[in-house]
Amino acid sequence: MDARTFGGALLASRGPVMRRRRTLRICSQMHVPDAAGIGYTEPMTKYCYEYARPAFSVDVVVLAGPVGARRILVVRRNVDPFGGMWALPGGFVDEGERPVEAARRELCEETGLVWEGPMVPIGTFGDPGRDPRGWTVSAAFLADLGLETPLVVGGDDAAEAKWMFIDELPSLAFDHDEMVAAAVWRLGEKVEAPVE
Asked: Could you report the per-residue pLDDT of 74-92, keeping only the tens digit for each?
């Protein structure tokens, strides 16, 4: 057994030190907005490293209604994977877009709901295999609308948008069941703790 220090802490390991295998080189350029904020100047810096990057997405758990009779906003997927299944509103984050703004955009595109209220982060979900298209990590947000359940309509890649009672939800696409459980648990309402 050998011992090394890392950040001032003593770490012990068994056997030789294992290093992460580096197989992919990825470069990106960071751009700075011009003075008007509408264009871009020349690249500020160029960073290169040899680690793979996941696709980054957002999902939104939208709750409404009184405690004990909560409804959740879901969409029926119009495309594969999981075409025809119910899911949370969400999608991929565009380059240069803040995750919370991506969540608001996806919510509006898929349901017609414009929400300018708080978007509370409820977790990051990235278990291997959660998305059959490849390595995808999702930041999940909670929007609690209070008692109102506004009119919603499916749009973009959602065939339908609908309010459902939480206790009547079917199995959701991807790992969205875990996101719902995490959101309800965070609110402190009666539900089992999320699976870790």
From this structure: 999 999 999 999 999 999 9
**88 in Cβ contact with 179 (< 8 Å):** yes
Q: What is the pTM of this model?
A: 0.75
Neighbours of 76 (CB within 10 A): 17
Number of residues assigned to the chain: 196
Helix (H) or strand (E) run with residue 9 in it: strand 9-13
Task: Quote the CA–CA distance of 138 and 127 in Å, as a whole number.
Answer: 10
Q: What is the DSSP letter of 180?
A: H
Q: Three-state DSSP class for 45?
A: strand
Name the CA dihedral angle for 121, 127, 129, 133, rounded to a multiple of 10 degrees. Answer: 40
Catalytic residues: 160
Beta bridge partners of 123: 140
Task: Give yes or no for a contact between 80 and 133, defined as CB atoms under 8 angstroms apart.
Answer: no
